[in-house]
Fold this protein.
Amino acid sequence: MSTESIPVTVNGKVAIVTAPGYVNEKSAEAISEECSGLINDGVSLVLIDMRDCRMVNSVGVAIIIEIIEVLDEQGGSLSFCRLSETIAKTFQIMGLKELAGMYSDQEEALAALAAA
């Protein structure tokens, strides 16, 4: 069980999870735990704000893919906003762009998700 604190806010029907500076196994597990709690509370739209994140390792990506799969099974989705250019390219290469929404900022993401 992770002890890392991950900030979460809810805006309408979207839960916004703020990623830390480095998404590794520990922080990705903390994000996963937050998402599990949100899903159990009936939230199906999760937005991960990557504004502070500068690096995501392979274990972090694998855990994020697991979160995407769980949300998809529940009829929901995972999206990202404010990705650095490097992380955006990495996610594109790894195929995450086909599995999750990617937005330039929270406002764009929230508008798109509210319309979904």
